[in-house]
Amino acid sequence: MSAAEENRNDDPYLWLEEVTSDRALDWARAHNEVVVDRFATADRFSELEHRILDMLDTDTRIPYPSRRGDHLYNFWRDAEHPKGLWRRTSFAEYRKPNPQWEVLIDLDALAAAEQENWVWGGAAVLRPDQSLALISLSRGGADAKVVREFDMAAKQFRAAADGGFELPEAKSQIRWIDADTVYVGTDFGPGSLTESGYPRLAKQWRRGTPLAEAETVFEGEPEDVLVAAGYDRTPGYERHYVARATDFFNESVYLLEDDGTLLHIDVPTDASESWFKDWLLVRVKAPWEVAGTTYPAGALLAIDLNDFLDGARDFEVVFTPDAHTALHGYGWTENHLLLITLEDVQTRLYVLTPGRDGWTRAPLGDTPPMSTTNVMNLDPLEGGDEFMLTTSGFTTPATLLASSVGGRTETLRQEPAFFDADGIETEQFFARSDDGTMVPYFVIRHRDHKGAPGPTVMSGYGGFEVSRTPAYSGASGMGWLERGGTWVMTNIRGGGEYGPEWHTQVQKENRHKVYEDFSSIARDLVARGITTPQQLGAVGGSNGGLLMGVMLTRYPELFGAIVCQVPLLDMKRYHLLLAGASWVAEYGDPDIPEEWEYLSEYSPYQNTSADRTYPPILLTTSTRDDRVHPGHARKMAARLTEQGHTIWYHENIEGGHGGAADNKQLAFQAALIYEFFTQMLIEDRKS
After folding, report:
1. What does the alpha-carbon distance between residue 217 and residue 255 come to, in Å, rounded to a whole number?
2. CA 628 to CA 622: how far, in whole Å?
3. Nearest in space to 230 (alpha carbons), one of 278, 170, 178
4. Which residues contact 605 (CB under 8 A, 6 or more apart)?
5. Assessment of whether the complete model's pTM goes beyond 0.90
């Protein structure tokens, strides 16, 4: 009997996995009423909620653009347009204090006209003329989306009956080839999706033909995560390609020739490969020995693509990591490669230039400490070496800048401060984990609070090589720092802050190190006199929600309160629920006995105990989350209640994996979290 079958037989709360059943939704609504009555009726809650909503809706926010040639596109929400506007302007107009925007789609008007709760899912604009776009819309914020073609000149959708490209709701992949052809992967019927619910087939679909007649160009296996196809339209270097992801971290990529021949990009499947013009870049995630040379994990390699396809393996190393420095991102301008690095979780920028004598490297301007600076809006398809920068810190609002390699830098936009940061400082510390690894974390607190322990909230994620870097958060400033609290952001293993091995060393059977890192930081905060266990809270979502579940069940004595958002918690059945099968490479397969053995040691749902004292916990999720099943949070709440623990549960009936579908819902969710921590860690400790 598999672990999942065994769980099905002994799980009394399996009915809570029935997402939209009346019984389950009634259960959720009853819990919501309790939460609202306890936390959301006070004047303080309403004031904070309105402040956060005003921040999210204000026109003083930066309208972050996506550059497409001469146009800058932006999706914008405010009080008048809660669902949002998709719009565009020119670069010259964007430089003005109050630019004029061409509104392409008013999502509020569309939702009202069609009587659908549309949530924006993104747009793929046809290059280079930008006459057409493929618009993705989801119902209530789910990952599954409908796709509809949009005529930019007419500013209306092109119906399928009139030859427009249109896909029903699914977790689809669709990309332009030309104005009359796309690559598409979607739900074509039985057998067309992987076990993870993503496309297994990649097809070429021509305008005016039924979707059922689209031509298959590549086919994966049911146990794959997904298959996709695309087209590189760089002038003079046009290439078709397909990709097959065999699990979350391994992918094989092929160039697709006109005759259907596949040319394999023969690099390690866990490496990240990309190309631009003649260059192939490979970022290796594990040591790679090839042609007599071993390249370290985290290195970025470059080689002529055609030479590589002909068998050459004489790579040039354009980035080498060290004990403190990792590659965070990279991208091309027309003539240069820009690198974003993390040096002890603080960003540094460099410009690399290929030449006859190899690559040259130089700093790309100064970056402020205790902050994050990212490069955005590189558009090598249109030529030029222009780019944008965005930078912010925990107490420093975001700034958007425009520059070019070798040119001057100008400030385009700067957001105002949304909370009083006077006297609030950022420090970085390192905690020693159980195996001796030094793990960094940031502490944000008022200088007057040093020297005495106080209410503190620490946040964590620790998975999928997701790096967490300093960033401005007006909500945490208003809801916690202004109330005298201390905020802590942890950089535990599982992320990518120190390169791929910071992640790979804690996969599967080594997952326990993630939880040891986080708990070690909790102890370090107490040892430094920053807080006490009774005053320490923790918050995390998704994979970070799993982290919170483990903290509750394995380390309850370290915390005074926990918020667990859109979490994974039942690790015996996670691979059977929605996209869960795609994460087996991260956690392990519970149907393999030796893998369930280590999963069972920490799976929160299987490790609750009526005999232990747990800190109060707030569990939140979304009915429309079709990535992490809401059954995880529902069942955990039911089991903890049965065992007599103090729990609160709130389920947004919309919202998707982000937990909210619009700014109003975002403001409510944020205010709820900070009100919960205020009551649990500040007021209850005074009484």
Report:
1. 12
2. 9
3. 178
4. 549, 569, 570, 571, 572, 632, 635, 636, 639
5. yes
DSSP E strand stretches across 576-630: 617-622
> pLDDT band at residue 545, thresholds of 50, 70 and 90?
very high
> The tokens of 9 are what?
């037989």
Strand partners, 201: 219
The residue among 171, 65, 177 whose CA lies nearest residue 132 is 177
Crossing angle of helices 663-677 and 22-39, in 10° steps, is: 60
Asked if residues 484 and 678 have their Cβ atoms less than 8 Å apart, the reply is no
List beta partners, residue 88.
Answer: 73, 102
pLDDT in tens, 566-603: 999 999 999 999 899 999 999 999 999 999 999 999 99
Residue with tokens 């040259």: 360
Query: What own/partner pairs with CB < 8 Å and gap ≥ 24 does 399-403 have?
Result: 400/62, 400/64, 403/365
Nearest to 193 by CA among 241, 144, 131: 144
At 231, list the tokens.
């087209």
| Spacing of C-alpha 492 from chain mean position | 16
CA distances from 387 to 39, 61, 333, 409, 645 (A): 45, 20, 8, 10, 53
> So what's the pLDDT on residue 142?
86
Residue given tokens 């297994």 in the structure block: 200
Please, what is the Cα angle at 648 between 646 and 651, to 5 degrees?
155
Domain segments of the chain: what residues? 3-39+427-686, 70-126+129-152, 322-417
Please report the DSSP string for 214-242 in residue order.
PEEEEE--TTSSEEEEEEE--TT--EEEE
Fold of 3-39+427-686: Rossmann fold (3.40.50)
Report CA-CA distances (Å) from 512 to 491, 577, 603.
Answer: 15, 23, 11
Q: How far apart are CA 177 and CA 207, in angstroms?
A: 11
Catalytic site positions: 542, 657
Task: Detail the DSSP E strand segments found in 91-171.
Answer: 102-106, 118-125, 132-139, 145-151, 156-157, 166-170
